[in-house]
Design a protein that fits this description.
By secondary structure, this protein is α/β, with parallel strands linked by helices. 38% of the residues lie in helices and 30% in strands. Strand 11 (192-196), helix 9 (202-210) and strand 12 form a beta-alpha-beta unit. The longest helix has 11 residues, at 110-120. The protein starts with a strand and ends with a helix.
Length: 243
């Protein structure tokens, strides 16, 4: 199972939000590039970078910082937040980003997602953000009437191979991930699932490892790394022992 440290960028700074709320922002570093280098030095196999300003506005806001990150580290980087057109997908991938995460357009424009998958294959990941079982979009500021499992199945049908699943009510709360629904998504589809939201302790990682066999490919850890609740080297060692 892969472990991906999260670097959420807002106004050029590395931050964490509580349940995705703009008004509940904690700044952890004014230098996201330095944070990326730190996680790489500590052994992170991949980085998860989110342009929060873009997620809220719908257009890229921190591409300069993201480009600097990809040029400063040798590990692969996946990027999400406000990527809603083929032009933006191409622009982000051209920076050396390995995978882009599409969220809102998976609801609003599935034809575009299908086109992107045909063009870029596994360079396309769909982010399914769920609030009480329903898909949240536009930086989680809006909730749709579509169930997360239904969207996952639709993405599977158009050729998507991998999703990032976040329970938005858990994100940034250190309350533990939604294991039951994460497992359900993996078990009821052929998708590779990356778990996100609320992972707060080594016990949470152990619980995810216990359902890895259903198709859990990785876990994104944010706040718990920045608060020290989880030590990256210890978590990576745990995953190594599980191999």
């Amino acid at each position: 199972m892969l472990l991906l440290p999260a670097i959420d960028i807002r106004e050029g700074q590395c931050v964490r939000l509580y349940q995705g709320r703009k008004e509940e922002t904690t700044v952890y570093s004014e230098e996201p590039v330095a944070v990326a280098k730190l996680w790489e030095r500590m052994g992170a196999p991949m980085l998860h970078v989110v342009d929060l300003d873009a997620a809220f506005s719908g257009s890229p806001q921190n591409l300069g910082v993201i480009k600097e990150i990809t040029e400063s580290v040798s590990v692969p980087v996946q990027v999400g937040g406000g990527i809603r057109s083929m032009e933006t997908i191409e622009e982000v991938l051209s920076m050396g980003v390995k995978r882009v995460i599409l969220g809102t357009i998976a609801i609003n424009n599935q034809k575009l997602v299908e086109e992107a998958v045909k063009e870029f294959g596994e360079g396309i990941v769909v982010g399914i953000d769920s609030k009480n079982g329903y898909v949240a979009v536009e930086g989680w500021e809006a909730t749709t009437h579509k169930g997360a499992l239904q969207l996952a199945r639709e993405m599977e049908d158009i050729g998507v191979k991998r999703i990032v699943f976040t329970d938005t009510t858990r994100d940034g709360t250190l309350q533990g991930p939604n294991l039951e629904f994460t497992r359900e998504l993996a078990e009821k589809t052929s998708l590779k699932v990356i778990a996100s939201g609320g992972i707060s302790s080594m016990d949470d990682i152990k619980r995810l490892l216990s359902i890895k066999k259903y198709g859990i490919e990785g876990a994104i850890i944010g706040k718990a790394l920045y608060t020290g609740n989880i030590k990256l080297d210890e978590a990576l060692q745990l995953l190594k022992e599980d191999e």
